[in-house]
DNA sequence: GTCGCATGACACCTTACATC
DNA sequence: GATGTAAGGTGTCATGCGAC
């Protein structure tokens, strides 16, 4: 890799600056990754991502006030932390002085981040100061930080996403010198808690507390780049592009080699990895009895641990139960699981005893299921000793919620069972998670982002993916398959926009969502609506201005002239004489006509309509054949249009049913029938007939969409208008 | 009138934190 | 450690709207 990289950002050529990629801090981070045996390829890709991200941040060496907002999009459990740590190192080497990390809204997440950041920058304290709002309260003030800066030390402050913590960090930037120090702000899990949850509130307060605090932080720091880091960017992309947290740029971070996520677990092989809990089973929450599926999950957990040990893999092995968000449920599940594990431990201890047979049946059944799934296994007899060992050395059931934090106890074991709710969601990594039992789901509509973040079973599991399993309900299995399709399409859209150089804010906000029981994100943060196109869209308003009419007509004439040889005259009657230009590509007409046409600010047709349509077609990977039809192009038309340009009559002409009449006519709505699989753009040249002084013809559009297309488009959603 | 859907009000759960 | 408060998230229910 070259040492100095001249960066030419993809979308904004005013902002060219040079990035040095082998400075002191970057090398520290890189060395630690090497020590921790990251594959070379992964290290290079992490550094490349950091360069790409930093290149879109403001140049810290220019003395001006500027700020930008970006989003770094990764995959759940794909190691986004390494990426933003590298970014901080690179930013320091290139002139940034301070890094503020909003490290999650729970203490366990903050702690996880603090530990990771400290481990990644094993540098001289005289070069870098790492502080966190929980432990260094007395140092986080303008005076002390200014002194550190004077001593030429870089600063990282990691804070909890809570009002007081953020305000504490904000306060130091009241100091003028600090306020102009180039600062990079990392918002970890940036779709959670930071965005405005009061956007649609009827209260007087239109800003949620954390959002308000973050905006204050942003305003205080005169030169900064604010980077949201998340695997579920739906909310960030769906909020108003005028919102200060709406990203100006986005960077996709492909997961490294060996990552197993949505496509492995919930794509074509979902039946192998996801086991559906039968609906007629007794509930885990019943006062007595334990569902068969729980025994199955436990047995597959111990068998799979035995398999890994047999293969020489003695790493951590974990089982997670996520039954519900309620603490009372966790307690009852812990009790049930503990009773089973205790009894299995007793049986495993005396495996020659007849009592062992009942345990053995469970284990053999789990073994057979793995065999049936095509997992390469030795004989059960060869595995048995390893399996029983796993049972004997298994931890107590770790309750993981606000009452009890199991993380410390789990370090004492290699084989761990966890039970939790909200504390085992987003952000948290459970080492060696192989089996998950999850039945938590809203009774009605679930959010895609929240649901996806519960997938703690994703991660770098290539070495033992064959034995990983998820036990869940049919509904949750379906949810994840829909999310898999949604996520693929989302990445595709952003990648394509990147290749085409489309600025992030201009990417069509169209997303795939094929499930009626899923919405993309919380409705208090951002709303969506179905991509619902009618068969016909008849333009109901124009700019009533002769110059505009001439310009719009010129666009149409140019298309006509460029395709002279393809024009076909279609005569239905004496007065119904149309001109057809068949078989154009939608994308071409979009570029040459709809992008340039001048639309009124009111009315039902504007560039946004065609942008949405185009984004929808891109998702469908289609560029539909489109015909242009100049309707009654010689005689033209007159309609009742008011002075504001609003069409008061019906634009489309009805049929003349008299078959014997020389004026028999099928009607404008039937014109697409013979070529019903194509889009038809009808051009109606219309003059106002009730107001004087407007003696010119204005082109109005009628857009016909084939039902196949409108149906296919209805599986997508876009930003809500309200 | 029925159905599906969006929306808002409200209650409850979970978490963090301040106070005693 | 117990208690109360603030904040964010989830779930349920009533209501209203438009399509049929």
From TrEMBL:
Keywords: Endonuclease, Hydrolase, Nuclease. GO terms for molecular function: endonuclease activity. Residues 293-514 form the Putative endonuclease Z1 domain. This is Predicted endonuclease.
